[in-house]
Write a structure and sequence with these properties.
alpha/beta; Rossmann fold; seven-stranded parallel sheet; 7 strands
């Protein structure tokens, strides 16, 4: 129960890794706002089953109005905000096709940056006044291990995704000092290749992990969820501005 009484907003919480992150934070005692453009009811059920107090919101993180409403509604409901997990994003698993630079649709390029990059910044800006007023808090931004290995497929031909996720690292580094004066931590987590809890790694994924990674297996959601719980805990209060790579030692930074 490392996070008991803490209030944390999780974006992109309706499914995938966002659901795993939210459930783990709930198990650690956090009270949650689940935010997604999709319905978060299934995630809310899992969090409530873990004993957490939960509220859900449908928002588009690329909308400044929506993110401001997300922060205000959270504060009005709980009376505090202690953390933000900026997880929402467009990925190759959620509607983003891998394309060469000549085939990239620029309207999709703009949408990817609107959600992945602008959405991260707007989330930070929305919660900042509340964290500044209480002079504490943690913001975790989710990038991607693809930013560290763009020389290899499939990310080598996905410039829009890699560029948008690389920008998140820059946002973290650029705002860490400004927010740090108010005792607010800002970090980036870059997940490596991760399979869902209901899938098994393909032979190609297993072979890749054995060839490339120090820990010779493919990542699973719990590998990341545990890191998220740690970063929002008091044990991580002196970590800020950093890139936390969770990839089994596939690349070493």
């Amino acid at each position: 129960m490392r996070l008991e009484s803490k209030v944390i907003i999780v974006t992109g919480a309706a499914s995938g890794l966002g659901r795993h992150y939210a459930t783990r934070l709930a198990q650690e005692g956090a009270r949650l706002t689940l935010a997604d453009i999709d319905d978060c009811s299934r995630t809310a059920d899992l969090c409530e089953a873990a004993g957490a107090e939960v509220q859900s919101m449908r928002i588009d993180v690329s909308s400044e109005r929506d993110t401001l409403q997300m922060a205000k509604h959270t504060y009005d409901h709980y009376g505090q905000i202690d953390g933000l997990l900026n997880n929402a994003g467009i990925t190759t698993k959620r509607g983003l096709e891998v394309r060469t630079i000549l085939d990239v649709d620029m309207a999709m390029w703009d949408r990817v940056f609107a959600v992945n990059t602008r959405g991260t910044f707007l989330g930070i800006r929305a919660v900042y006044p509340y964290l500044r007023a209480q002079r504490s808090g943690t913001i975790v931004n989710v990038s991607s291990g693809s930013t560290l290995r763009i020389s290899r497929a499939p990310d080598a031909i996905n410039a829009q995704y890699v560029a948008s996720k690389s920008a998140i690292i820059g946002i973290t580094r650029s705002v860490a000092r400004e927010l740090g004066q108010y005792n607010i931590n800002v970090v980036t987590v870059a997940p490596g290749q991760t399979i869902s809890s209901t899938d098994s790694p393909t032979p190609a994924e297993e072979a890749d992990a054995q060839t490339e990674a120090s820990i010779q297996r493919t990542g699973v959601p719990d590998d990341l969820a545990g890191v998220m719980a740690f970063l929002f805990s008091e044990d991580a209060r002196f970590i800020s501005g950093q890139l936390i790579v969770v990839n089994g030692g596939r690349e070493v930074w």
